[in-house]
Design goal:
mainly alpha, Peroxin 11C, about 325 residues, about 0% strand
């Protein structure tokens, strides 16, 4: 009988723990019951031809206006100005937020490590970039983006400085107009009955600037020429084109900013001194005032050897003239 015993007696018996518990099987959830069964080959809805055509038309119109903005030196400088300071401001915001999160995460991580060290034991913890990326990956990535935005801002700033090397050519023609008006005012004031003065019509005489306005224009023109000459010399010397020493380059940049600060201060006073009816004659009086009010603290900041404000404030204030000029430029290309 032992030879005819069933072979299944030698198979391992499943443990009791692996047997079914006998509890009722829970019913499927309502969400699972109502979930639609989708086919693997089912295609996602595609945008209609009308929507694609509308998107293409909007993109074409945007690029056409942007091309108009970039077709003049002033337009190029405006676009670079906006991108330069908005990228600097964005980099500062990202840097401050990511450093705060990273420091808090590292403090928590170090507290956990300190709690696992036996009392009286000495240990050293080295925190490097890889450790920071592992502890707070989002903050570490934000720091990388902030560094790249800062690099972009520096590049755009240098590009604007390079394009201003030819600004003296435009200032020459600006000076011609300023001195021509000054000469006309001087002749009209000195010899009101002269032939050149009497040849002017009544409307032309009314359009002549006053002696104070003429003096302000001459002073602002002189300040702009001085600041541009100093900036050009300092920039070309920093690139090895001219032979100015580093100390002279630093002083040139400081005095260039100081001349700019003087120009901005005079311009703010001139705009505020205008009567309400004269302000409407000014092209974008509010825009010019907003731009110069934003430039004023920055020019004072750059005029100081140690500086006065943070990079975040520089980016914020510098973005205001960029937004104002870009808005005016964009409106002119409509």
């Amino acid at each position: 009988m032992s030879d005819s015993a069933p072979a299944i007696a030698s198979e391992p018996v499943a443990p009791v723990a692996d047997l079914p518990s006998g509890e009722p099987i829970p019913p499927p959830s309502a969400a699972a019951a109502l979930e639609p069964i989708t086919s693997v080959n089912e295609k996602k809805p595609q945008p209609s031809p009308a929507a694609l055509a509308k998107a293409l038309y909007a993109s074409d119109a945007f690029l056409a206006r942007l091309n108009k903005c970039l077709s003049t030196p002033t337009g190029i400088d405006t676009v670079l100005l906006l991108l330069c300071y908005t990228s600097k401001f964005s980099a500062s915001i990202l840097g401050v937020l990511s450093r705060s999160i990273l420091q808090r995460s590292l403090r928590e991580w170090l507290a956990v490590i300190a709690g696992s060290v036996p009392p009286g034991a000495k240990t050293a913890v080295v925190v490097d970039s890889k450790t920071a990326a592992a502890v707070a990956p989002a903050a570490a990535k934000a720091l990388v983006h902030a560094k790249r935005l800062n690099a972009l801002s520096t590049l755009l700033s240098e590009a604007r400085t390079m394009t201003r090397l030819w600004a003296l050519v435009g200032m020459y023609f600006w000076g011609k107009g300023v001195f021509a008006k000054a000469a006309a005012v001087w002749r009209a004031k000195r010899n009101p009955s002269s032939s050149s003065s009497s040849a002017l019509s009544a409307s032309e005489k009314e359009q002549l600037p006053s002696t104070t306005e003429t003096a302000i224009s001459l002073l602002q023109f002189s300040l702009c020429v001085a600041l541009q000459v100093l900036e050009n010399g300092a920039y070309l010397s920093s690139k090895g084109v001219l032979g100015w020493q580093p100390a002279r380059i630093g002083k040139a940049y400081l005095w260039s900013a100081r001349f700019w600060a003087a120009y901005v201060g005079i311009e703010i006073g001139r705009l505020l001194a205008l009567e309400p009816k004269e302000r409407w004659k000014e092209d974008s009086w509010k825009g010019n005032l907003a731009k110069n009010l934003a430039w004023a603290p920055l020019t004072v900041h750059w005029s100081s050897e140690k500086g006065l404000v943070s990079e975040m404030v520089v980016g914020l204030l510098g973005s205001i003239p960029g937004l104002v000029q870009m808005r005016e430029l964009w409106a002119s290309t409509a």
